[in-house]
Amino acid sequence: MRRVAAILVVAALALVAVIVATAQAGTKTTTVTLAGWSAGADEDQLLQSIVNTFEKTHPGIKVDYSVINGDYTTAMTARFAAHNPPDVFYVDSSLASTWASQGVLQPLNSYIKSSKFDTSKFYPSLLGAFTVGKSIYGFPKDWSPLAMEINKGMLGAAHATVPKNWAQLRAAAQKIQAAGVLPSGAKPICLSADWARMLPFVFQNGGSLANITSPAAVAAVNFYVGLIKSGLANTPDKLGSGWCGEALGKQKAAIIFEGNWLLPFMASTYPGIQYGVFPMVSQKTGGNLAFTVSYSLAKDSKNKQAAWTLLSWLTGQKGQTLWMSKGLALPSRTDVKAIGGRKNFLIAAKYAHGWGFPHFATAYTIMNNDLSAVITGGKTVQQMLSDAAAAMKG
Q1: Which run of H or of E encompasses 287?
Q2: What CA–CA distance (Å, rounded) separates 147 from 131?
Q3: I want to staple 163 with a disulfide (CB 3.0 to 4.6 A). Which of 50, 169, 217, 284 is the partner?
Q4: What is the distance between the alpha carbons of residues 391 and 370, in angstroms, rounded to a whole number?
Q5: Looking at the structure, do residues 186 and 240 belong to the same domain, yes or no?
């Protein structure tokens, strides 16, 4: 009997092995290519670990993740032209409308409908950055607005309060300057010659990109540039810094306007500097920018269904929760929590405009060159805004 039982057990195990082998042989594995640029080793490694988690829970899909080094836009443009783009890839909000109009992005509406993917959890302003007309061309993987960061020691020594509007910002800067708490060569405020920092002030005054030559826009630029010309602010290069975050760390400026990326930078580079993160100032209304990047699907993808499975998982609640685990960015979904200390960034979602405008690649260069010229007196504000309107028309 024992011999018969043993034979039956062996036979059963053999049958199971055959069934498993057959099942494995019948499982087709689809390879999906995923690509983006590098924002540092920590982010690259985190994304690879998330991809590994996806593969474990989706055994039929293998993900080939790669980092595109160098000029990402140029590299992707070449791959679009060769009809050989990655299946899923990063799209900066500044390029979304351009690439959508060129027909290289796959509209996602039909995939959303067939899989019943819930888009209501995304902040509307962020999802809107990747929506053209009624077509959605990507889901924001994360984002950051600007906030106001202030050296607490300098603010306290000057007996100044945290500013909430333009008049209070100027008053706080004047108090800091008069208090004698700034090192030699420092200024109360650091302001970049960059529309990615000035544009929120245009929005705060009720201005818009669609009517960039309006009195509201003119007044906003005059206030921004006026802070520099009055001696209350200066650009990073004049403060011996590469960017305003470095100026805050070196105590070359007491007040700056930067995004969530400042926090890990300060923690690792200037851990001894005591600063606070406060909401962006407002004027007639709130105004801010949403620096955001999507995961999008290539129109030329040969594996669209598998690519959609990856894309929707990465931007779904589970995938994005994993992505937020190191605090490198802010969640674009309302049902995903941010790492602590980000409250004054997250409240900007209500007033944030997706960063970008028509003909961005060429217009942005023209607009920043003109802003530098306005600061140095080489152009008038009206000339700059007229140039900006023309550049955005192409």
Answers
A1: none
A2: 25
A3: 169
A4: 11
A5: yes
Q: Which domain holds residue 229?
A: 146-289+358-393
Q: Is residue 8 part of a domain?
A: no
Angle ∠(81,85,89) on CA atoms, nearest 5: 130
Q: Are residues 371 and 228 in the same domain?
A: yes
Q: Which amino acid type is present at position 116? A: K
Cβ-based burial of 81 (10 A; exposed 0-12, middle 13-18, buried ≥19): exposed
At residue 5, the pLDDT reads 42
pTM of the model: 0.82
Phi and psi torsions of 190, nearest 5°: -110, 125
Burial 15-26 (b: 16+ CB within 10 A, else e): eeeeeeeeeeee
Distance separating alpha carbons of residues 337 and 352, to the nearest angstrom: 19
Q: Which residues in the chain land under pLDDT 70?
A: 1-27
Over residues 201-222, the pLDDT tens digits come to: 999 999 999 999 999 999 999 9
pLDDT at 203: 97
